[in-house]
Amino acid sequence: MVTIEDLAARLEQVETQLALHRLAADYCIGADQEDLERFAGVWTDGALWDAAGDDLEDDEEHRFHGLEAILAAVRGQWATFSRMQHATTNHVVDRDTDDLDQAVGRCDVVVTVQLPDGRWVVGGGVYEDHYQRRDGVWRIASRTVRRPFDLAPLDGHGGARVPAPDLDTPRVSD
């Protein structure tokens, strides 16, 4: 028989999963929409954003320690790239069974940025996260980029091209 306590524990687990998935979304939205308040809200004060990647183990230039350094880094991205678009998927989260205020997660990311010359670069990788809950609020305590990649800049005009419809092809409704 399922007890109220069992249901409460299951509900709390679902709420935690949703809150952690929301963090991933708020990170992307904050970065892409230049929403500093939203972006800042996903991090703990002492957070680490390790964007050095696997190949740059000794690269301290791309490791940002503390909220102020993280915010300075994203402002630098905004000054460099006129547009960014992050998309995360395959987000998996596991809570620490010994400390329910701790969790780890990972998600795949694809990032598209517009270079100053108008060309676009597509990149991505894997985010490995450590989350902490303080005063009932989940935040990212560390985010590490793994397996980063960048494709060569894409030539183009900054807009999608949609081909004209083929009027000779019968439609399903015909």
UniProtKB/TrEMBL annotation:
It comes from the Bacteria. Residues 13-144 form the SnoaL-like domain. Residues 152-174 are annotated as: Disordered. InterPro entries: NTF2-like_dom_sf, SnoaL-like. This is Nuclear transport factor 2 family protein. It comes from Aquipuribacter hungaricus.
